[in-house]
Task: inverse folding
């Protein structure tokens, strides 16, 4: 039979140039060892010294083996306890028997009555007590550099976990080590048995108290598997915890271990169904997370993550943990009457937690956004969520900002609402951006897009102080006046585009508190527009023209040459520096104040006509009362004085003279709109 390799020229080249020389070198090295190596010669032909050495070695090995078989391991309990106590600066004792079995493919150890005390500041309770514990390791894996534990059995363990408000944790054996946020990593355990375990938690920073039981049983009945059940309180309200997993039998590193967990407290409920991807690496898992509650801000007490106040919510998405990094991805749900979706990443940078969120809404209800700013959400009988300031008659929210929560984490936020539900302000889209670092919150942008026009600005909140200090700078561009002043008889009362700017700063723990203590300026400008002629005449209290046009249903318009309202703000009181409404027939000038603390107005508008008018009441218009429902009227005292003067003239001189107080010669001139607008901007 022909040999294809023998006839292959390439094979002949490899054989002659590589294999034959290599074989020759190997044979030469073997011949040298046989001729020169003393160890080889001694092994082939052992002499008396070699025989004695081999015998001594065998005897020593036999003696060591016999010693280990007969050794009373309890003699090591004291030295182990003293070493561990000195190493971890707490009392550690083994009070019961210590038994070790080394002569097996799965060496094992059993220990009874183990006590690990608390640190100096928590010595009143042991951190860990175990009545009986047993564990084994797989020897072949150990020789390969891996630790695998065929079995771990623990009976009646008692664990006490204490965390103080300043961050000390009783279970940290090395408190000086940096907290990386990584999960507990244990070697693979094929069988885990826990009998009648107890866990006590005292988290003083968030006021969490809990007593839990823990069991891990084998079998196929309803009691088999991993069970963790806890009850307690959080911030004085009930708290429950439940975790379920399958039996720990034949657990493998490459086989995910599934679990189901629920936690409920402070009006919040979190449900997770997932799997630990590499048992027992608790720093790696995937889960479907569902959460719902009355206010997202409440999850801080459960998770330590700061979130804003919201109306009732329900969300669901995919939760992934990669050591210190948690990702809540592709979640969807509702917050109040608005939909919400997006991604949230929680990580650790140094010793600080960081949260980065990218959120979206297809349809936003502005009342839900008002709740984020501190307004209190309320559910109506129809099921809709509305928001109010929390105080009757108040416009500005008065819920205080929790500055302590802003100091414990950093992060960023991006939020976009593609559409907004129909609202009185005609807001169509919303965009928000935020950056929080070391207690300083920068909001940029804060943008509201209207059907026509936009409100855009920035805000900065310094929460490093006990009382936050804030600064805002907002600009209004092109907002239609017809969206502010309602139409009458189907025709717009006033039209035009408004421009404005608000620059304020001051201390305050809430929006209302900030406004009540603010300083700065607020201005509103209408470069040009149109006003119903009847209302333009009434600015000058022109009875004959104004009331006649109004009662007659006249819808003709007068030009607004310009309107400027410029206020300086100090101590929460806005005082008019410039207040001018210049129309074709009337020049109106105003004065007065707006009290942001009481949320009230006290404004006075004096109008002068530009043409002679026969009957004109010399009385200013007044705008007074709360911001939520101001009342427009006339100064009755001025009208009474004018009528009294007319009556006196009619009685003393001539009935025609009685008309003189009501005659306006119309001497008002056009305002210098360019200068007024420039000064207000």
Result:
């Amino acid at each position: 039979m022909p040999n294809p390799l023998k006839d292959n020229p390439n094979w002949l080249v490899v054989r002659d140039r590589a294999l034959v020389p290599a074989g020759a070198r190997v044979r030469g090295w073997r011949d040298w060892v046989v001729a020169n190596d003393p160890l080889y010669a001694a092994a082939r032909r052992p002499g008396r010294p070699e025989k004695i050495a081999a015998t001594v070695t065998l005897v020593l090995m036999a003696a060591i083996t016999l010693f280990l078989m007969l050794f009373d391991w309890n003699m090591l309990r004291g030295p182990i306890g003293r070493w561990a106590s000195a190493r971890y600066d707490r009392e550690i004792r083994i009070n019961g028997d210590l038994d070790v079995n080394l002569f097996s493919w799965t060496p094992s150890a059993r220990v009874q009555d183990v006590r690990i005390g608390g640190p100096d500041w928590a010595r009143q309770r042991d951190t860990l007590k175990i009545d009986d514990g047993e564990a084994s390791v797989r020897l072949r894996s150990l020789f390969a550099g891996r630790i695998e534990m065929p079995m771990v059995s623990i009976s009646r363990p008692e664990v006490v976990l204490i965390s103080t408000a300043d961050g000390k944790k009783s279970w940290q054996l090395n408190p000086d080590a940096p907290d990386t946020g990584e999960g507990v990593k244990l070697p693979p355990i094929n069988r885990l048995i826990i009998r009648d375990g107890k866990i006590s938690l005292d988290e003083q920073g968030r006021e969490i108290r809990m007593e839990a039981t823990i069991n891990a049983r084998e079998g196929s009945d309803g009691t088999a598997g991993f069970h963790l059940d806890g009850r307690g309180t959080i911030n004085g309200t009930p708290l429950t915890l439940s975790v379920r997993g399958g039996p720990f039998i034949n657990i493998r590193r490459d086989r995910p271990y599934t679990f189901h967990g629920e936690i409920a407290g402070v009006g919040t409920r979190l449900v997770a169904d997932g799997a630990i991807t590499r048992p027992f690496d608790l720093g790696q898992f995937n889960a479907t997370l569902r959460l719902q509650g009355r206010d997202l801000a409440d999850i801080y007490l459960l998770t330590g993550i700061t979130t804003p106040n919201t109306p009732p919510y329900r969300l669901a998405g995919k939760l992934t943990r990669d050591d210190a990094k948690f990702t809540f991805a592709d979640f969807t749900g509702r917050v109040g009457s608005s939909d919400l979706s997006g991604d949230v990443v929680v990580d650790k940078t140094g010793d600080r937690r960081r949260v980065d969120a990218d959120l979206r809404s297809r349809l936003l209800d502005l009342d839900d956004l008002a709740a984020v700013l501190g307004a209190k959400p309320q559910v109506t009988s129809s099921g809709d969520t509305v928001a109010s300031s929390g105080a009757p008659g108040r416009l500005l929210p008065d819920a205080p900002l929790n500055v302590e929560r802003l100091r414990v984490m950093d992060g960023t936020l991006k939020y976009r609402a593609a559409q907004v539900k129909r609202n009185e302000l005609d807001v169509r889209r919303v965009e928000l951006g935020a950056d929080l670092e070391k207690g300083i919150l920068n909001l940029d942008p804060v943008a509201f897009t209207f059907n026509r026009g936009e409100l855009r600005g920035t805000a900065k909140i310094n929460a490093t102080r006990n009382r936050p200090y804030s600064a805002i700078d907002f600009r209004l561009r092109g907002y239609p006046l017809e969206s502010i002043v309602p139409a009458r008889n189907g025709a717009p009362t006033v039209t035009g585009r408004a421009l404005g700017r608000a620059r304020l700063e001051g201390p305050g723990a809430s929006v209302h508190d900030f406004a009540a203590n603010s300083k700065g300026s607020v201005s509103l400008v209408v470069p040009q527009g149109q006003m119903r002629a009847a209302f333009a005449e009434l600015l000058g209290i022109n009875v004959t023209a104004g009331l006649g046009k109004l009662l007659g249903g006249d819808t003709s318009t007068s030009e607004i040459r310009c309107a400027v309202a410029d206020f300086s703000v100090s101590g929460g009181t806005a005082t008019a520096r410039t207040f001018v409404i210049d129309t074709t027939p009337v020049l109106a000038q105003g004065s007065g104040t707006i009290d942001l603390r009481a949320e009230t107005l006290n404004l006075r508008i004096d109008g002068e006509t530009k043409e002679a008018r026969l009957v004109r009441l010399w009385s200013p218009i007044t705008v007074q009362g709360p911001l939520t429902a101001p009342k427009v009227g006339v100064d009755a005292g001025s009208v009474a004085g004018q009528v009294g003067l007319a009556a006196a003239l009619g009685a003393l001189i001539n009935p025609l003279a009685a008309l003189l107080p009501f005659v306006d010669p119309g001497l008002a001139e056009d305002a210098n709109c360019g200068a007024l607008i420039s000064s207000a901007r």
Observations:
- Residues 542-552, 639-667 have pLDDT under 50 and may be disordered.
